[in-house]
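User: Before I run my own analysis I want an independent prediction to cross-check against. Here's the chain; please return only the structure tokens and, at the end, one sentence I can use as a sanity check.
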Amino acid sequence: MDVLLQQIINGLVLGSMYALVALGYTMVYGIINLINFAHGEVLMVGAVTSWSIIVTAQESMPGIPGWLLLAVALIISCVVAAALNFVIEKVAYRPLRNSPKLAPLITAIGMSILLQTLAMIIWKPNYKSYPNLLPGGPYEFGGAVVTTTQIMALVLTVVSLAVLTYVVNFTRLGRAMRATAENPRVAALMGVKPDMVISATFIIGAILATIAGIMWASNYGTVQHTMGFLPGLKAFTAAVFGGIGNLAGAVVGGVLLGLIESIGSGYIGALTGGVLGSHYSDIFAFIVLIGVLTLRPSGLLGERVADRA
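Assistant: Structure tokens:
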């Protein structure tokens, strides 16, 4: 029982990170029908930027409380990632907005490779240890162990989702996003500026990805220039799983994918008689992706066409 509870807790933490990244995929798809495959690299840039800030601050100003250092690194990294995603949209995707869908898709893959290469040049290819800045813990709960970082990850996810829900449903920007997703030309006639709305969508997505990236780095203790590829691919799977273009679907898909992956990795050894170990956990995401695309291409909650932003 404690093993199952532990895997459920691990799955919720993992799923919350997938959900935050999946929201970036689904918001962009909901607005301009683009699968932004560079989104995982925005997560990576946010995480390695925070690592640079933390390491530099620890060397130059020792004694700063860990929580304060992490908060400052989070804010600055969000600004950097948001600026990066703003530039990517303006330079790489906006000129191709009226092109065949294949063109921006290939551009997104190229942008992903470009960001990885630039990060490798700037931060070097070796893995770097991410400092554990949060004191206290681990805490025992029903035979399972919960770290302070995991609690922080869950709290940040809940807060981020609450803020995003408020912005989308109760603010002028949210109404503009929904109108642009419905019909950009009609929205423009009503006074909405689609270019500004699309830029804001990319900025919000970058902030959510950066939060997920820092949680990922804190939870696993390392950063590296390729760290965004696999979480990005799994978050895309989560978005498809829940119903791409659907905000609630991205959250449900992310949490369920995290639970499936975590529980599956905990029992895969027993189920296969030791033939497969927990390091095969990545296969569950792709089994889910193949299953969803085959059996229910619109995802669990379906793609919301009329109100998908």
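Sanity check: The radius of gyration is 19 Å.
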